[in-house]
Amino acid sequence: MRFDEAYSGNVFIGSHPNYEESSVVIYGMPMDWTVSYRPGSRFGPARIREVSIGLEEYSPYLDRELKEIRYFDAGDIPLPFGNAERSLKIIEEYIDQLLADGKSPLGMGGEHLVSWPVIKSVYKRYPNLAVIHMDAHTDLRTDYEGEPLSHATPIRKVAELIGPENVFSFGIRSGMKEEFQWAKENGMYIAKFEVLEPLKEILPRLKGRPVYVTIDIDVLDPAHAPGTGTVDCGGITSKELLASILEISRSEVQVVGADLVEVAPVYDHSEQTANTASKLIREMLLGWF
């Protein structure tokens, strides 16, 4: 992988032109090969970048500006269309290199399966890793209609790798009965429907630990984020999700990587979802790194 040249396409607002001088790297994972309902999330990273030009660089929530940190937008990882197994391997190798260079990874999806190789790579470096997962769906299936590589399976893969007791899911409101039973029987934490209040209770337990945060945009109610592949009513507001990101910022956990996935611009006719995602990325950059 080469990071010595700035990405030639649209970049996230305020991106530093030099990889070596940056501490955080933003990258896209344009994959939607395994989605079970509506495709299109492979176009999410590019659109989030494009709409970021409308952001203010100052966060009134954190009283910080983007110019206070150095982050490099490396563009999208080139992935072989339709080849999930090869794509996941490429993503893992990509993150291996970022971590070897001392960079913090901040990814944009793409379907949620792309989080799996990233977390696998981060776990190699941080064996005491905990994962905070915000989503409408449990993503705890072993397979989807016989296919183990599916956007319905990444959190199960993560839980089996790092231990289910180290995975904390929030905002969950959809999944098979067997998935909820598996989580309960194996000591995995699931907060149904809500994010902020249960997150406040869990964060002190993770004090001092390395934490990876993965956010599926469909944790938001479709009224706040219609531009996603698998919408599910009854979700949280964008205000609550912002507050949850800020709560992590104020905590004493060590965020060592993060991603935001499942933005699908083709269903986002007002660009509401992409603009929300872009603002969330800004707060993640300023608050976590």
TrEMBL record:
Coiled coil: none annotated. Mn(2+) binds at residues 112, 135, 137, 139, 216, 218. The keyword Manganese applies. Pfam families: Arginase. Binds 2 manganese ions per subunit. Keywords: Hydrolase, Manganese, Metal-binding, Polyamine biosynthesis, Putrescine biosynthesis, Spermidine biosynthesis. The keyword Signal does not apply. Gene3D superfamilies: Ureohydrolase domain. SUPFAM superfamilies: Arginase/deacetylase (SSF52768). Its cofactor is Mn(2+). Catalyzes the formation of putrescine from agmatine. This is Agmatinase. Belongs to the arginase family. Agmatinase subfamily.
